[in-house]
Amino acid sequence: MKAILRSGFLALAIMAHVVPANAGPFEDGFVAADRGDYATALSLWQPLAEQGDSDAQYNLGIIYGTGQGVPQDYAEAVKWYRKAAEQGKASAQYNLGIMYDNGEGVRQDYAEAVKWYRLAAEQGNAGAQTNLGLMYDNGRGVPQDYGEAVKWFRKAAEQGAAGAQHNLGVMYDNGRGVPQDYGEALSWYRLAAEQGNAGAQTNLGLMYDNGRGVPQDYAEAVKLYRKAAEQGYASAQNNLGVMYTEGQGAPQDYVSAHMWINLAAAQGGEDAQKSREIVAERMTPDQIAEAQRMAREWLAKHQQ
């Protein structure tokens, strides 16, 4: 019912420059993008990109990839990322790797994704290091190699990348690529959890829930599960519901339990769907209706 999960890919962001007093077209484009005027940004960056400016090429990739000010066009995003990536721009190499990894604008090709992630990772790009670690961890595009996964997770984690810190914690927790070490797992989970990483908050909660590497502390587990659950993290929502069901770290409350488990089940979690049935058997029809109302209100509030 309570299972460790892994984190996914990182987000994309437009390349910013400090805007000097005598700003030029690139900087003017960034000012326009910052106020949401992507059409103006595009008109300023397009000529620069066509002249070979790698920053402008990268930013055009972001605009087309996210559909900001233009119809979303992954193929056009790939075109501009590639131009910048071939000039050695690490952020473009990283994003081009993501496009190959996800099959967006190009045919999905894990080996090609690994190629671009590696080029960016070797330049110190923490997102690429994290994703390259994931490729080794899962054996996508490369032979599965937990030691290599740990190597790349560590490089990104030491730069403060929360996703990598979380993943490195998972490796220590499960003893993959490193000797199992709950103390190390806790340290990395804690660093990521303090940055708001929902996966790390959930896994740190599991450590307190099960007394692994720390004295068992249900109240602390509930606190951590709640932080991740409020971010919409299904595993944490399920686990928080379980704590309410059992009265561990919080007063026993079937209505709250059903609400959280129902939110997790709505995301497709099989464990949560089973848990919801178990909790519902202990509830009156009025209690179930109240829990469902609370879940709808939570969704309405958090989907705004």
Describe the structure.
The protein has a domain at 26-123: Tetratricopeptide repeat domain (Serine Threonine Protein Phosphatase 5, Tetratricopeptide repeat, Alpha Horseshoe). The protein is built from 16 helices and no strands. The chain has helices spanning 25-34, 38-50, 54-66, 74-85, 90-102, 110-121, 126-138, 146-157, 162-174, 182-194, 198-210, 218-229, 234-246, 254-265, 270-280, 285-302. Helix 2 (38-50) crosses helix 3. The longest helix is centred in the C-terminal third of the chain and has 18 residues, at 285-302. The radius of gyration is 22 Å and the shape is globular.
Please estimate the helix content: 55-70%
Main β-sheet description: none
In round numbers, the mean pLDDT is 91
The CATH class of the domain at 26-123, by name, is: Mainly Alpha
The helix-and-strand class reads mainly alpha
Runs in which pLDDT lies below 50 for 5 or more consecutive residues are: 1-12, 16-22
Question: Key features?
Answer:
Serine Threonine Protein Phosphatase 5, Tetratricopeptide repeat, disordered N terminus
Provide a brief overview of the structure:
The protein has helices spanning 25-34, 38-50, 54-66, 74-85, 90-102, 110-121, 126-138, 146-157, 162-174, 182-194, 198-210, 218-229, 234-246, 254-265, 270-280, 285-302. The protein is mainly α and 304 residues long. It has a domain at 26-123: Serine Threonine Protein Phosphatase 5, Tetratricopeptide repeat (Alpha Horseshoe), CATH 1.25.40.10.
